[in-house]
Amino acid sequence: MKQSAKKSTTKKRSFQGISFLIIVIFIYIILYFVNPQKTLESLNHFIKNTSSVLPVFIFVIILTAIINYYYPKERLAKILQGKSNMQTYLLSLLAGTISMGPIFTWYPLLKNLKDKGLPDGAIVTFIYGKSIKLTLIPIMIGFFGLSYTLVFMIFIAVAALIQGLLYAFIDKRF
């Protein structure tokens, strides 16, 4: 019974993605007849943006495959459950801080880790921790100074941990 429900859910998700793609293509075709120049500009903008994030998508797909290969669900769940709650949140903060690219490219990996047992609060911490941009720290220091930058980064890190732990607390209550 469970497997048939799972297959049905998977087919629904897959179908929704294809449906969305067909709807978008259909809208582009209609808009092309309304205003061909604007439609082509929009399509070129989409292609430009997609190609700029494509390397990050590929990286996340490869990283997900590596995690799935070396850390099957049982092993990863054991690692995550074996750590203290704070260690999991600190690791999530570190991973969020060093991750590159737009956050939406990380959603598939985060969903995969969630399915393997990563708590939702740790995902909140990861997402919030992404606001620390390691590559921009030297520029920030140049504009605002070292002490401001350090205090700012510490505040973000502490807030990321608080957000994740607060989410976990509220999630347990409701």
Gross morphology:
globular
- The parts where pLDDT drops under 50 for at least 5 residues are none
- Output the structural class: mainly alpha
Report the major sheet: none
Give the strand content. Answer: under 5%
Spell out the helices and strands N to C: HHHHHHHH
Number of E strands:
0
The N- to C-terminal Cα distance equals: 28 Å
Radius of gyration: 21 Å
Helix-residue proportion: over 70%
Count of runs of 4 or more consecutive helical residues:
8
Could you report the average pLDDT, rounded to the nearest whole number?
81
Write a structural description.
- The chain has 174 residues and is mainly alpha-helical.
- 14% of the residues are buried.
- It is built from eight helices and no strands.
- Helix 1 packs antiparallel against helix 2 (36-70) and helix 6 (120-129) runs antiparallel to helix 8 (146-173).
- The mean pLDDT is 81.
- The protein has a domain at 53-173.
What order do the helices and strands come in, and which of them pair?
Elements lengths: L1 H33 L1 H35 L2 H10 L2 H14 L8 H9 L4 H10 L7 H8 L1 H28 L1
Top keywords for this entry?
mainly alpha; 0% strand
Quick overview of this protein structure:
With 174 residues, the chain is mostly helical.
